[in-house]
Amino acid sequence: MPLDITLFGIQMPTLLPIFVAAAVVQILLDRVMSDGGLYNHVWHPGLFRTAVFVCLFCTPCLLIYR
User: Fold this and answer.
1) What CA–CA distance (Å, rounded) separates 7 from 38?
2) What residue ranges do the domains of the chain occupy?
3) Using CA atoms, how far apart are residues 52 and 27, in angstroms rounded to an integer?
4) Which residues, other chains included, contact 53 with Cβ-Cβ below 8 Å and sequence gap of 6+?
5) Which residues of 10-24 are buried (b: 16+ CB within 10 A; e: fewer)?
6) I want to staple 22 with a disulfide (CB 3.0 to 4.6 A). Which of 12, 57, 61, 66 is the partner?
7) Cβ-based neighbours of 42, under 8 Å, separated by 6 or more
């Protein structure tokens, strides 16, 4: 089970790069969904954004730490 990774000589927890990658993907998806007008059909956009981020973050985490 990989708990730490080394990136450019810095040892960090595996969850940190996954969190950063999920945040970048979330920003891109948020722009696409807002330009597409999806948020006009969603009851609570802030809650929806949070749920999408949790799904994007937890999926790779569960695959790594299983």
Assistant:
1) 37
2) 15-38+45-65
3) 11
4) 22, 23, 26
5) eeeebbeebbeebee
6) 57
7) 48
Region 16-28: mean pLDDT is: 95
d(CA 62, CA 22): 14
Q: Which residues contact 2 (CB under 8 A, 6 or more apart)?
A: 14, 64
Cβ distance 52 to 9 under 8 Å? Answer: no
Mean pLDDT computed over 14-25: 93
Q: What is the largest CA-CA distance in the chain?
A: 46
Residue-wise pLDDT for 30-52, tens only, equals 999 999 999 999 999 999 999 99
